[in-house]
Amino acid sequence: MGTATRTIQVNYLARVEGEGALYVKVRGGQVQKVQLRIFEPPRFFEAFLRGRAFTEAPDIVARICGICPVAYQMSAVHALEDALGVRVGGALRLLRRLLYCGEWIESHTLHIYMLHAPDFLGYPDAVALARDQPEAVRRGLALKKAGNEIVARLGGREIHPINVRVGGFYRVPSRRELAPLEEQLKWAREAALETVKWVSKFPFPEMALDHELVALRHPEEYPMNEGRLVSTAGLDIAVADFAEHFVEEHVAHSNALHGLRRGGGIYLTGPMARFNLNRTQLPPLVQEAAREAGLDQGCRNPFHSIIVRSLEVLYACDEALRLIAAYEPPEAPAVELPPPAAGAVGHGCTEAPRGSLYHRYVFGPDGTLAEVRIVPPTSQNQRAIEDDLRRLVQARLDLPTERLRHECEQAIRNHDPCISCATHFLRLELDRE
Amino acid sequence: MKILIGIGNKDRGDDGIGPAVVERVARQAPAGTVVRVLGGDAAGLLQAWEGAELAVVVDAAWSGRTPGTVHRLDATAAPLPASLGATSTHGLGLAQAVELARALGQLPPRLVVYAIEAASFAPGEGISPALASAVEEAAARIVAELEEQPCTSCP
């Protein structure tokens, strides 16, 4: 292949959220450039939140993503409550965690069964997979539905829930209203265990990443809504110090900002980071499933991310059952909020299915939102995805072009990038000489 | 059970044609017809038409034909033509939902798709004037379809 010139171009990377392309430049057998080009237009959410009442933020930011609206709502309410000096605990905190469990189940299961599994099993898409393995796909659809039911029950509807507000909820459920979820979740927990067994037998390309992994850590639980930001390189900071340690850069080839550690280091957030940094917080059922899947010592192969997602689905089903059993309705659906103080700043970071989602808000003199900053996981993960691709292509340059393109797409899907969220993307162009 | 499903987003111009037709039909649909408006996600569609003997789905189309053209497609007989255009960025829209259901044995005995040619998907509420008569035409044909009695004596 030495001096031959070949160009591979994929106009759109299918099975990721949004629009983007991948450009790979190879010269003399060396990968020189890997660029994820995100051309979904910028969406300006941060700008059009300015001048809005803080109470509008949860419903507006939910519109950033149809797959993970709960994550946007959760980061927003926590950041705004930080700015107001309010803490939400007890049953309201429990319900928020339950809502998040629903989104993890729904989002991860969609990705595992409909988007990523076909790659490993050699099918072009989920429809072809369904023809050969209908039982598996039926299980995936029913499992996803269990997640949807939680979000619909607590959020008022499955997508873009309408029941979340700063301080709590507009309406909270009775114990009786949550009861029907229990039966479904007991089935879902078994289906999730089957999912772990199913995906852990897939054939996995060998690969080891050494990126710094960043996730929330909480002293008492696997992280969702709260904690400190920690990393495999020893970072341990309050969420409010995010901007001192992480920066975002504009790059010419992409409409999405690129996240970096201050000083230029590449880092990765998401299921791999959460699992490696917090797996001892998982209950025995999930730890045992991880051990059987061969991941009890952690996991550095990005292709194993599908197993990690399946473990997080198992955890979310189990945790949702625990939360429902512990639930006692609160006296009020939300806590009282003080008026916004001019100049007050609030930070929030929660664990979206795809990784840490940071929000920062500043109130203006009239109490409306004066400054808004939203740093989604896909922005933060872009450099790490490009780095994975650089290594993958370098190690597999002898593969036929089509095969290589397939593996690049599969490697991108390891990180379940959500282009709509990050545009703030996909086409694959392999330019080799 | 008969179900009528409108797919689309009212805030994206003619993408709202599905919901608009469904709204128009809802007032005249025969008793017992379930009426839903959905975003078009495959899993949601499979769930919605589960157990229905007849499902009618209305969606916007983007194939380059004259805006307002009403296509009637028998999805039970054959896959939806790719030429009608994918309006979903998620890669798992109506056409994939139909094929997923076929692969899983979850297609309703009768699944009819009305696809209406759109003129614009620009942000904002409201259907293009060119599509006004298409709403009426599709609504009338769907009401007739829903009222048609299934052949109970057929084996």
Structure overview:
The complex is a heterodimer of chains A (433) and B (155). By secondary structure, chain A is α+β, with helices and mostly antiparallel strands. Chain A contains 14 helices and 15 strands. Chain A has helices spanning 45-49, 57-61, 69-84, 90-121, 126-132, 134-155, 175-200, 242-245, 271-278, 284-292, 305-326, 377-395, 401-413, 419-422; strands at residues 6-10, 20-27, 30-38, 164-165, 168-169, 212-217, 228-231, 236-237, 246-249, 258-261, 267-268, 345-352, 355-363, 369-375, 428-432. With 155 residues, chain B is of the alpha/beta class. Chain B has one domain (2-147): HybD-like (Rossmann fold), CATH 3.40.50. Chain B contains four helices and five strands; from the N terminus they run βαβαββαβα. Chain B has helices at residues 17-26, 42-48, 94-104, 132-147, and strands spanning 2-7, 33-38, 54-61, 70-74, 110-117. In chain B, α2 crosses α3 (94-104).
Brief characterization of the structure:
The complex is a heterodimer of chains A (433) and B (155). Chain A has 433 residues and is of the alpha+beta class.
The fraction of residues assigned to DSSP E strands of chain A is 15-25%
Shape type of chain B: globular
Secondary structure tally, helices of chain A: 14
CATH architecture of chain B: 3-Layer(aba) Sandwich
- Largest interface: chains, residues each: A-B, 25 and 17 residues
Largest sheet of chain A, order of strands side by side? Answer: 1-15-2-3
- Low-pLDDT stretches of chain A: 6-17, 420-426
CATH superfamily of chain A: Cytochrome-c3 Hydrogenase, chain B
Number of strands of chain A: 15
Order of helices and strands of chain A: EEEHHHHHHEEHEEEHEEEHHHEEEHHHE
Largest sheet of chain B: 5 strands, mixed
Name of the level-1 CATH class of chain B:
Alpha Beta
Query: So, CATH architecture of chain A?
Result: Orthogonal Bundle
Shape of chain A: globular
CATH topology of chain B: Rossmann fold
What is the CATH C-level name of chain A?
Answer: Mainly Alpha
The value of Rg of chain B in angstroms is 15 Å
Structural class of chain A: alpha+beta
Determine the N-to-C terminus distance of chain A.
8 Å
Q: Structural class, from secondary structure content of chain B?
A: alpha/beta
